[in-house]
What we know:
The complex is a heterodimer.
Chain A (H helix, E strand, L loop, with lengths): L4 E9 L4 H14 L3 E7 L9 E9 L10 E6 L2 H4 L6 E10 L21 E5 L1 H9 L5 H12 L4 H12 L4 H21 L19 E5 H11 L4 E4 L6 H13 L3 E4 L3 H13 L4 E5 L1 H17 L3 E7 L16 H6 L8 E3 L4 H18 L2 E7 H5 L1 E5 L5 H4 L54 H17 L8 E3 L5 E7 L4 H13 L4 E5 L2 E3 L3 H9 L1 E8 L5 H6 L8 E4 L8 H13 L1
Parallel strand pairs in A: 1-4, 4-5, 5-6, 8-9, 8-10, 10-11, 11-13, 12-13, 16-17, 16-19, 19-20
Antiparallel strand pairs in A: 1-3, 2-3, 2-14, 7-14, 12-18, 15-17
Helix pairs in contact in A: 1-5, 3-4, 3-6, 4-6, 5-6, 7-8, 7-12, 9-10, 16-19
Chain B lengths: L5 E5 L9 H11 L10 E3 L8 E3 L8 H5 L5 E3 L6 E3 L9 H5 L5 E4 L4 E4 L8 H5 L5 E5 L2 H6 L17 H13 L3 E4 L4 H4 L15 E2 L6 H15 L4 E7 H6 L2 H10 L3 E7 L39 H6 L5 E6 L3 H14 L4 E7 L3 H4 L6 H10 L6 E4 L4 E4 L9 H5 L10 H20 L7 H6 L1
Parallel strand pairs in B: 9-10, 9-11, 11-12, 12-14, 13-14
Antiparallel strand pairs in B: 1-8, 2-3, 4-5, 6-7, 13-15, 15-16
Helix pairs in contact in B: 6-12, 8-10
Amino acid sequence: MPKVDITIEVCGMSGDGTIAAGGLLNAAMSEAGFSVLAFDSYPAEIRGFGRCVTRSRIGNEEMLALAEKTHVLISLDDEQSRSRIPFLEKGAAVIFDNKPPSYVGEGHAIPAHVEPDINLFGIPFSDLAAEASGSTRGRNLTALGGFAVIFGLPPEIFRHVIQKKFAPKGEKVLQANLMSFDAGYNFAMTAFEDRLLKILTPPETEEKTEKLLLSGNVAIAQGALDANLKLYFGYPITPATPILEYLAKALPEKGGKVLQMEDEISSIGAVLGCYYAGQRAMTATSGPGFALMTELITHGIMAEIPAVIIDAQRGGPATGLPTKTEQSDLHAAVFGGPGDSPRIVIAPTNVTECYEYTVKSFQLAEKYQTPVIVLTDFFLDNRVENVPMPQASKEALKDGNIYPDPSAKGPYNRFELTESGISPRAVPGMEDFMFTTTGLEHSESGGPNYTPENHMQFSEKRHRKIQGALEDLSIPKEFSKGGSLDVGVISWGSTFGSALEAVQKEQEKGLKVGALKITSLFPFHDEIIRGFMERCGEVLIPELNFQGQLANLIGHLHRKDVVRINQATGKPIPASIILEKIEEVLKA
Amino acid sequence: MGKGYPTIAFYPEKCNGCNDCVEACAQIKTETSEPVHSRISVAKDPDDEFYGLSLCRQCGDPRCVMDCPARALTKNEDTGVVHWDETKCVNCQICTLACPYAGITYNRITDQVMKCDLCNGDPACVKACAPMALEYKIGAEIYNTWGDLEDLFVPGVGACLGCNSELIMRHTLRRIGPNTVVATPPGCIPGVGSVGVNGITSTKTPVFHPLLTNTASMLAGVKRYYNRIGRDVTMLALAGDGGAADVGFQSLSGAAERGEQMIFVCVDNEGYMNTGVQRSSTTPYGAWTTTTPVGEALQGKTRDAKPLPLLMVLHSCEYVATAALPFMEDFYMKLDKAIEASKRGMAFIHIFSPCPTGWRFDPSQLIEVARKGVETNMVPLWEYENDLGRINITHVVNEPLPVVTYLKSIGKYRHLSDEQLVYIQRKTDERFELLKKFTKESKLEGLSDAA
């Protein structure tokens, strides 16, 4: 079957049901068997200012990143959608309301503003919805009805997802939405009879693996649930709040508890307390909250207490851009806080990894007795991918704690100096294993000790221990045929998908280009990274921050300056920008 | 300066439909007891809970005057009475259609229209009303006093429909005036645009958008410097309950204890509404939020709200008050005192701020919900002046409504069981009793007893 790779946008004013329509569209496309990667953008302000846009990339191969150009624009408010016109692909389809509601300013009707090659489909959403259901509220569904016909999708798929979404809200709401959908479907069927595009006929695959639409945040929450998390402590902050809200519902049903704390300092404090006592605990926050946590994170490092912290990055510094994406907490995550304080920092690059890395973070925290920071970002947290339901292996769910030998004789040294730096950890209440835990520098017994030798020795112990974690951390993954490369692209987090897409396009052209995915950010596998760099003519590091924080962290491993692609726009980096840079470097 | 006029106010919940007012009106106007001659009437549909009133409100901008083709109706700019001139009337009765209050009606006996003239300032109906459902009062006193002050927020901020925070912002700042630095930490007040959007600020004073942790300490820094250079500027914080009672509490408590000179207004909408309705420490017991969900394991919040205004009293603030916007005169009075007190130290005003979006009620019911909060004694209105050393209840509710009348008007309490309702009533009563203990002029009694 022909390769499908199209991007569909729904655009409207907040209150138009834009996000809801985008969600239904994603669900329907997933059910039809396509791969989906979708991301919504909306304003931080409460309402009235807000343009909402959902972007869904649909295809029959795995989608790695968002595309830059749009093939289908469903406009619920032409005044807002006009700003999307520059992003339309040549010959794109625009489905719009040709009898728009009165609040859409005059002169904005989209046909007057687009290039002549644009394929226009005018449907009176509001009128049709009102006629069918008695209210214009379902006009977003009417638009979807039109979309389904024009692109040749069976209506049953949409009806099924509408059923799933609205059945809990009662029969009346469900029927109103179904009728609004049908009105658009029937209208478009006759109105555009002779020019239906029908390019999205669902792939007829032999065997469909059951796929779920998951956001990064839900994958994290689900990973924590599957890892047998018992206590979650958190404080609302965009974009991490959905984890708190999801667990507030799901965790009590599994016998756990969610506690909303008065701030992030208390959240991390309670996580450390809980883990000190021997129970899995976690918190999630964003940059501003993470900043408040840093002192206690270093307490966890000094006192060797496990903790799991999700830092869902957003634009910064300070309050910054609360609803925009950025990868600018890397330095804070790796270095933040007083003293020499090594900790583990890992970063998933897609929704499935969000799940896997959350599961894994508990074991890492337990084995290495240290706070583990999982770095995600707005684009990863709120993107939706359809993925096979992730499942943690039994091995991955095991208790990572290393306990002292119960038959051991003599006094227990909680912070015993060992080769690996890992001292078997008792929890309070274990008979014969009394110990002191403190944020002061201490000796093997846990008692305060400020002698020069001791501080040197224990600083070294903590670093040795964390460096040792490399054996359990995912190694950088290379995407190339090996051998020498003209250009190597190294990337992390949500940006990696774009990097890989750009690299794959170059590889298809036969160019010697490769990609390296780094998910272990501290400690990192310097030998492997250096090995990759040595085979590269030039090394490109694209990331969503102004300074190039990953480049700062690993750039010194290269024999010459790495090429930084730093984007601080609050938006995900498109593959095309990376592609352009690769071409530029190749030409030079 | 605007002008306030007399009117007759009506309290439907007090009216028993006895019609004594109707009789009194007919009597004084025509010396008969025929109801047909009365300028006032009360009526009730069988489905309605309360009586409704038909009576001229002596509007400031009367439709009847506007619509009268013969200029037989005029507004007396001195007395405020809408006057009907019999000699000019052409009896077209358009005025009876124009008036939304049925305040001017057609009398079939006299074949003319008739309306209330307020009996020269001594209305017979008010005197006749035994349950005191009618009250003769001068309207818009606040408007008289403060009507010319500038609204320091631009029109058209992006609040949700029926937002109480917008009212608070506008009234607070227009009273406190432009010589002010406004600090407002992340939350709904910046979220609706007070800090600005797309590069444009909607506040006409300097705005300081600090972090949630430190509103009070940052303002303290500003004020300390201004004091050093002898500049007199008011410090105003407009913070939500998160920025005051949760993450902001440490800096607020510290500033209050040090006696920092500022007006700190806590806009208490009982949760984190800006991030999508999570609980805060001022979320009341039983309330639904996304982090205190309702299901099998839980039925809303399991703990009581933190009594922040009382805690601030115990900080020996110069002035502490609670306020709710249905009682606007009470609120303005408290702002006046807060302005004075902030010259000596911390003035703290805790404003009850129902949120239609987050609490799930119809935006048109905002004022009604807030009123019921006060009249159930769930949100008593009081003030504390440091030099008096006691709490003064500024709006005494003689017969508090049962809490269920308030709770049942709000979606976030829809699930409450009978046991939960009993608990909330008991807690409300207990907290009010505790409050009353602070109202006694007894602060020295204990000491003198001991001596």
